[in-house]
Structure formats: C-alpha cells, structure tokens
Design goal:
mainly alpha
Length: 231
C-alpha cells in the first residue's frame, strides 16, 4: 500500500488522543492513515515497515501490492487469508506450476480479486521469482541490494513528505520488468518497499518510527564493523 497524501483521504485523519470508537484516548501516536480501523492499526503496528527477509513473505507482499492496483488496501487486507489459501501460502514453487485450469478456477474464487491479468501475473511472477532465487540464492539478496541492505532513514514529518515513488523504486521496477515480472510499476514497487521495511516511512511523530530507525542503525553499525580490516 503506497502511503501518500492522497491516500489519507480514504481513511480517518483524526488526531491521536481524540476519542474515537474502539480506541482509547491514551493510544500512542501513529501515522494518520491507519486511524479509524482496527485492522489498519494492527497492520501498521505489527507489520508495515518492519524489514522482511523471508522469501515467501516477500513474494506475498509483491503479490498483494500488485493485486491492490486500482483498489483500496483495505480490500486486499480483508482478502489476505483467502489469497494465502488460493496461492498455496505464497509458495512460489507451487504457484509457478499453476496452469490455465488453475486460472479459470481462481476466476471463480470470490475470496480474491477476480482479475485475469492479475492472476496470470502472479503465476508469471512466481516463475520469475524462482529465476531470481536460482541466480542469486534468494529474492531477499536481490531486492535488498537496491537499498544496500539497510532501511534508509526517511524522516518524514507529515504525509505531504511521503512520495508515491522514488528513484530507487524506479530502478527496482525497471529491473523487475526486465526479469519478466508484471504489475511492478514504480508506485507498486514503492508500496512494496514501504511494506517490507526497505524504507521507514513512519512519520517521526509515530511511535513505530524510532524503534525501526534504531534497529536500522544497529544493522548499519554491524555491517560497517564487518567491513573494517582486522589488525
């Protein structure tokens, strides 16, 4: 889900501390896009922006972000369990073996987005995903090299500071397309990067920003220490 100023209007930009049904006045400060929905708050607090290095989960988010194109992220989150069932818990090896018969079966599955192009792209992406794994050992090794293995400190102060895409997402999109991936435009790629922690787009006022930023600094420090020559 690409979190941009335009996206916020679809949610409830209420200030933390204001009373809203289902949430206490003492709730911690959060990014405004997640307020007003327990599902969004749980996703924001537990998953969004947390670095992911598990290939299966990376394939899951790549699929879900592509499925969201033209739709709301709430629609996709509501169907997430159905997607896991329909696409073999996002095992790319199994999805890559899907045939035209599977596409027709999935087109009748009301639990997912019944868009033939998106379903076929998921199968094509699974095949391309396996090729990346064969070439580089893991999709994790491939995708994280675009940010040199570390979540950059974005330091967003308001939703106006959050871009829809960046030069990095442009580069990732271009490379994925060259490798045969579909539904991987730059905006989708940036949403993917936000989701899997390749960028920390939690606002600086959000309670999740500091822990993720601190964790990134520790990773960066360990990486620099490993590069230091031993005496």
């Amino acid at each position: 889900m690409a979190i941009t100023p335009g996206a916020v209007g679809a949610f409830y930009p209420i200030a933390n501390g204001a009373r809203t049904e289902g949430f206490a006045v003492t709730d911690p400060a959060r990014c405004p896009w997640c307020l007003g929905s327990e599902t969004y708050i749980r996703y924001h607090d537990e998953e969004w922006g947390v670095p992911v290095h598990d290939d299966r989960v990376l394939f899951e988010f790549l699929t879900l972000e592509g499925a969201q194109a033209g739709l709301s992220w709430s629609t996709i989150l509501a169907k997430r369990a159905n997607y896991r069932r329909a696409f073999c818990d996002f095992d790319p090896r199994q999805v890559a073996r899907f045939t035209a018969r599977d596409v027709n079966r999935l087109m009748k599955d009301a639990g997912i987005v019944r868009n033939r192009l998106k379903i076929e792209s998921t199968i094509a992406n699974a095949k391309a995903f396996l090729q990346v794994q064969a070439e580089l050992g893991s999709f994790d090794a491939y995708v994280w090299r675009f940010v040199e293995g570390i979540s950059p400190a974005a330091r967003r102060r308001s939703m106006r500071d959050v871009p829809a895409k960046t030069a990095v997402s442009d580069a990732l999109s271009k490379d994925l397309k060259q490798r045969g991936f579909r539904f991987v435009g730059s905006t989708i790629c940036y949403a993917f990067m936000q989701a899997v922690g390749m960028v920390n787009d939690h606002l600086v006022t959000c309670h999740r920003n500091a822990p993720l930023a601190t964790a990134a600094v520790k990773v960066r420090t360990r990486g620099q220490a490993r590069k230091q020559p031993r005496s």
